[in-house]
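lol ok so funny story. i was supposed to be doing the assay writeup but got distracted and ended up predicting the structure for this chain instead. priorities right. anyway since i did it might as well share w the group, maybe its usefull for someone
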Amino acid sequence: MTLPRRLSVNGDALAIEPAGAVTSLRTQPQHREDVELPANQDVAFPTIGGNAIELLVRIAPSTAPVVELDVLRSPNAEEYTRISCYRDRGMNESFAGARRRQSLVTIDTSRASIAADVRPRAPETAPVCLDEDEPWELRVFVDRSIVEVFVNGRQCLAVRVYPERDDSVGVVLRSQGSSSQLLSLDAWQMQNIY
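and the output, tada:
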């Protein structure tokens, strides 16, 4: 179901990234940078979206308790798959003088489909330890019914989704509670591997 993964050791942490030449499938690149994400407002990217895309999202550290990224979103949010980043929501970790705080990432599929026969699952949740001033770096792959998220090169989550609507292709960001800064957003349409 998922991309092949390459595991390696990076200092004191396990590193995880897509294996193989997935970048060779990229087409139609788009780039945005330095976009403010006002508190409690959806920020849509009308020219970015699709059901076979790769996104590379970098979000600066902020006081926002959660920053959300919706993919496969229909125009009026009837359907969407939500990736949520919760900063500093776990135990602190110290190793070799470095201090990291545990954060959480979830993929919520509860609104991913309006189809009557689709039963949503509980959100997939995984911890990731970030340095205090480290931005969120999300590498997101959407392949029609699969959403896979690599987080700061140290964690990965994947879910299966079943969007019913043909227009469920949007990308939206939201900073909850206080504003955040989108450092950069790179997007590519992905070609078929066959």
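The mean pLDDT is 92. The two ends are 16 Å apart (CA to CA).
back to the writeup now i swear
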